[in-house]
Amino acid sequence: MSTELIPRPVAIALRFAQVAFAAIVAGLIGYFLNVLGGDGDSWTTGRWIYAEVVAGASIVLGCILMIPSFHGCFVWPVDITLGLAWLAAFGNLVNTLDGTVCGQIDDISNFSNTNANCAQGQAGEAFAFLSGIAWLVTGILGIYYVWRSDQQRLGYWAKHYEV
Start and end of every MARVEL domain (predicted)? Predict the structure, then answer.
């Protein structure tokens, strides 16, 4: 019987999705930061920078955790932490775009005097949410894997020794 919860190709696909989602968010938010420059509220810019930092950390850690030697490691706290950081970034992005001309869900207009349109910002929001869910899923699977291996170990001692 296999001790793996999910096959390695599926685990690598989840990690690849995490890196891809983070790269998409980094590109979209980086484009907004470049186009809008310093012409805006510093609070809004800070929220976009937070999303960029979380995206950068996700890209780096996602690439490191794709290395096969990390598959059996105890990394679920990293997954849960980044998942929660992504959900915070998602909330920040939603709040940020709500205060601009992109406040409506079906608004695809452009920001004033720029080429940045609302659909790009909303795509950044969507991929931030997807990234948060992907990190949380791997974290929850990691917690389950640790719990299951602990349960198997408890049964080993009870069967083989007089306890």
Answer: 11-139
Examine residue 43 and state whether it is found in any structural domain, yes or no: yes
Write the DSSP assignment of 59-97 as a string of letters.
Answer: HHHHHHHTSGGGTTS--HHHHHHHHHHHHHHHHHHHHHH
Confirm if 65 and 75 have CB atoms less than 8 A apart: yes
State how far the Cα of 103 lies from the Cα of 85, in Å rounded to an integer: 23
Domain count, the chain: 1
Q: What is the pLDDT of residues 110-141, one digit of tens each?
A: 555 556 677 788 888 999 999 999 999 989 88
Residue where the block lists tokens 């970034």: 89
Distance (Å, whole) CA 73 – CA 76: 9
Q: Please give the structure tokens belonging to residue 33.
A: 């930061």
Q: Which two tokens stand for residue 71?
A: 């598959």
Which residues is 117 bridged to in the sheet?
110
Query: Which structure tokens are listed for 47?
Result: 């929220």
- Asked, for residue 3, whether it belongs to a domain, the answer is no
